[in-house]
Specification:
The chain has about 400 residues and is α/β, with parallel strands linked by helices. It has 16 helices and 13 strands. Helix 4 packs across helix 5 and helix 12 crosses helix 15. Bound molecules: alpha-D-glucopyranose. Alpha-D-glucopyranose binds next to helix 1.
């Protein structure tokens, strides 16, 4: 079996981390398969994938194509006109890119082209050589983005199967594309050797420039700076905790993707922290490359997405580190946990409910311990790379004629 993977970025957000774990799982289960990755920008993913023994080629997007995104483009006519004008401006460089990609794919002639991001779904489907099957791996809800949804619906017939990172994302795609194409929900995996209770712990106070406080209970939100990751919800919930509770909050992560308009800025978040008088209780660590060491340094991991979360890799990673998690219960994220058993849950954007969960856990070390043990059990049963590789293997075998 030969597979070429296409990623629109070499940065390591959730979709790329999931891709890396899939490649690691496939390398292990099928050492003889030919795997190869093409990325549209350089970044840490490149070295991590090469370290698995999978060759990587960087085929950079023209900058206008890298920046193009329909995040937040709603029904307002002005937004739509501006967006369409930007699309038009991108058309010529995008066609040049498509030509280059087509050349590379024709030379490789893989059995499967596995695409991992909206732009690559379309480019992969357009550049597909005769005889290669295209498989779209969805990590986000297409149905919430009208332009994307229309394009995917229009070109879905060019792909052989769709993989979605949760049942919720699979259902959304069924609404977009109908039943003509097989859509398989496959949960992501986590590297359980890296995300485990044992290992180094990051010094979160030093990273965020806060005075050291060995006794504080550390609660953190680990996320990219996408607007819907709920940073403001988290900060406001921290502000509701009684000042007598020895708690510190950490915002771990930073803006990652280039798509314009999609990221919250650190200045906005700092201004919110200042307006709530939380400067000495909330730290900003910036992006921490070894997020497992940051999670291990926390007592509680918060997931606060205000929109339905397609999967929520951070939830799975935190569980694998044996952390009590408070998760926002919507979308795929709601499939991963059982509230009260292996995590706690709150409704997306419900500041008071999130504060209540954090306070309950802060007061109850026994509950933290119980959730931690159950989370570890769940992770070792459901988030292994072997399971993910096995599920994908049957899908590849189904789309490639024997
Ligand atoms: C995207 C989704 C996130 C998921 C990740 C990996 O980043 O937004 O929910 O965990 O992909 O599938």
């Amino acid at each position: 079996m030969s597979i070429v993977f296409l990623s629109p970025t070499g940065q390591t957000g959730g979709a790329e981390a999931a891709l890396h774990d899939l490649l690691a799982g496939l390398r292990e289960s099928h050492p003889s398969w030919s795997l190869r990755l093409i990325v549209a920008s350089d970044g840490p993913l490149v070295a991590r994938v090469e370290a698995l023994g999978v060759p990587v080629q960087i085929l950079p997007f023209p900058s206008s194509l890298a920046r193009l995104g329909d995040w937040g483009v709603g029904r307002g006519w002005w937004q739509r006109v501006t967006f369409l004008a930007r699309c038009a401006g991108t058309a010529v460089p995008a066609l040049g890119y498509l030509r280059r990609l087509r050349g590379v794919l024709h030379a490789a002639g893989p059995d499967v082209i596995h695409t991992n991001g909206l732009k690559m779904h379309l480019l992969g489907a357009w550049a597909r050589p005769y005889g290669s099957a295209v498989l779209w791996h969805l990590h986000d809800y297409a149905g919430r983005r009208p332009f994307t949804a229309r394009l995917l619906r229009r070109f879905a017939h060019r792909c052989s199967a769709i993989v979605a990172n949760s049942s919720s994302v699979a259902e959304d795609m069924r609404q977009v594309c109908g039943d003509a194409i097989a859509i398989h929900p496959v949960w992501n995996a986590v590297d359980l050797t890296r995300f485990s209770p044992n290992g180094t712990r990051a010094d979160l106070d030093a990273l965020s420039g806060l005075a050291p406080d060995a006794d504080a209970l550390r609660i953190g939100l680990v996320a990219t700076f996408a607007r819907w990751k709920g940073h403001a919800t988290f900060v406001k919930a921290l502000a509701m905790l009684p000042p007598s509770l020895p708690v510190r909050g950490y915002i771990i992560g930073g803006p990652l993707y280039e798509t314009s308009g999609s990221q919250v800025s650190i200045d906005e978040l700092r201004a919110l922290v200042t307006s709530l008088g939380l400067e000495s209780r909330v730290g900003f660590t910036g992006f921490v490359q070894d997020s497992a060491s940051a999670m291990r340094a926390l007592d509680i991991v918060v997931h606060a997405s205000t929109d339905p979360e397609p999967f929520g890799l951070v939830i799975a990673e935190a569980m694998a580190c044996g952390k009590p998690v408070v998760a926002s219960r919507a979308g795929g994220a709601a499939e991963l946990t059982e509230p009260g058993v292996n995590a706690l849950g709150h409704e997306p954007g419900d500041v008071a409910a999130l504060a209540q969960c954090m306070a309950t856990l802060a007061h109850d070390a026994g509950l933290r311990e119980r959730l931690s043990r159950a989370a570890l059990r769940t992770a070792s049963q459901r988030f292994t790379r072997q399971r993910m590789a096995r599920e994908l293997t049957s899908i590849y075998e189904a789309v490639v004629p024997a």
